[in-house]
C-alpha cells in the first residue's frame, strides 16, 4: 500500500485527497513579504499590508 506523507510536516494520510486537503488547510498560508507575518487568507494579508505597511500604490 502506498503511503502518503506530507513533505512539509511529515504527517501521514490514507488517501491523496486527505493529503491535498491537509496541505490546503494547514500549509497554504500567505506570508507578508515585508515583515514575514503569516495569514490564512489573501484577504487577511492584504488588510495587514494596508494597515501595517501602507504601501502607496
Ligand atoms: Zn503537513
Ligand atoms: Zn507585514
Automatic annotation (TrEMBL):
The keyword NADP does not apply. Gene3D superfamilies: Classic Zinc Finger (3.30.160.60). The keyword ATP-binding does not apply. It holds the Pfam family zf-C2H2_jaz. GO terms for molecular function: zinc ion binding. Residues 4-28, 30-57 form the C2H2-type domain. Keywords: Metal-binding, Zinc, Zinc-finger. This is C2H2-type domain-containing protein. It comes from Candidatus Manganitrophus noduliformans. The lineage of its organism: Bacteria, Pseudomonadati, Nitrospirota, Nitrospiria, Candidatus Troglogloeales.
